[in-house]
Amino acid sequence: MAHINENYRKLQAGYLFPEIGRRVKAFTAENPDATVIRLGIGDVTLPLAPAVVAAMRAAVEELGTEDGFRGYGPENGYDFLLEAIAQHDFAARGVRVETAEIFVSDGSKQDSGNIQEIFGSDCRIAVTDPVYPVYVDTNVMAGRSGAADANGRYAGITYLEANEANGFCPAPPKERVDIAYLCSPNNPTGAVSSRENLEAWVAWARAHDSVLIFDAAYDAFIQDPALPHSIYEIDGARECAIEMRSFSKRAGFTGVRCAYTVVPSELTGSTSSGERVPLNPLWARRHSTKFNSVPFVVQRAAAATFSPEGRKQTGEQVQFYMGNAALLRQGLGDAGFALFGGEHAPYIWMRTPRGLSSWDCFDRFLHDAHVVATPGAGFGAAGEGYIRLSAFNSRENVEHAIARIAKAFGD
Q: How distant, in Å, are the alpha carbons of 103, 129, 237, 276 from that of 210?
């Protein structure tokens, strides 16, 4: 008999976003004439930038020639993309990252779930709460937790509450853990870590011989140039941190799929006997064993985002979404709602009105305003009492959503 991985049975009943989809589907079936505005799942809405489309088209044509045809690509990524990433995402900010330390993939969601495979099953992890569910669920699947309690928190995982008092950027734990997940700008709260906060985390990781997994998928949305875009802008981070970035939100690649992970050559872990082992070769082995590289046409498209035209066009898209975020902040703020985030991220984190629970507020938004949001409780126990709104939509829909929400909760 084939025994199952019983750790899967520890997981909560359903992944957050399928449950949202189920409720929305049921509502639209019962109300076919309702025009639903979706500000829930953080999926982009603008079409691919012209420079990206042109690069993909040219790459397809190239593959249709004898000289230009390519089969399996290099697992880590083509040099033209690796060099562009190293130059524009890091060297341009005074950060050294070598191409051999960059691993191109088909998504940060996959990378943030897969990275835990190179660590021992006895590693203790810490997450901020609320948190992107993948960080927790994949470690539960791997057996690094006990059962969940009534609040959905798993035994064996250290939860660091992100709340209004700490600006949704908690300090490191007092105790030692092996791996800590950070996300800045943050999903779901929209908060961005200051240099001082990241310095504290790097100092803590080095003091405790811990590894930081830093998710910078939304770095393009940071509006203040003084704020760090990369953990490697902090001295000492190369000895303690892995960084992940994505083209999904910064260039509209949610359906195209391209991202990358950086594992510095200095970063090490230890064996049970105490031997120090570099993590870069371990991730390289995992990557090459289980992954056959991102398609050539997609990597050409990603490289095009670093061209002058690509940077201008994708930058304009980011600013369009940030314009939506500013409208949400002003419109809902003027209507009396308590709002956070939305200044350096495409997400608004809103305190639920009238003491509603997160899911009750979700249902009220859906049924009374015909607006889909994301219940904060789906991101963790500390998310209860909040709801997340996404700026990924048309300007017209955002304006309609503001009016509908204000009317639904008006006295």
A: 22, 19, 11, 13
Helix or strand run (H / E) with residue 241: strand 241-246
Q: How high is the pLDDT of residue 14?
A: 66
Give the per-residue pLDDT at 379. 95
What DSSP string runs through 105-174? ES-HHHHHHHGGGGS-TT--EEEEES--HHHHHHHHHTT----B-TTSPBTT-EEEE--TTTTT-PPPPS
- DSSP, collapsed to helix, strand or coil, labels residue 341 as strand
The whole-angstrom separation of Cα 125 and Cα 350 is: 28
- How far is C-alpha 262 from the geometric centre of its chain's CA atoms? 15
3-class DSSP state of 372? strand
DSSP codes of every residue in 262-306: E--TT-EEE-TT--EEEHHHHHHHHHHHH-----HHHHHHHHHTT
Amino acid at 192: V
**CA atoms of 392 and 144, how far apart (whole Å):** 34
The Cα–Cα gap between 358 and 388 comes to 9
Q: What is the pTM of this model?
A: 0.96
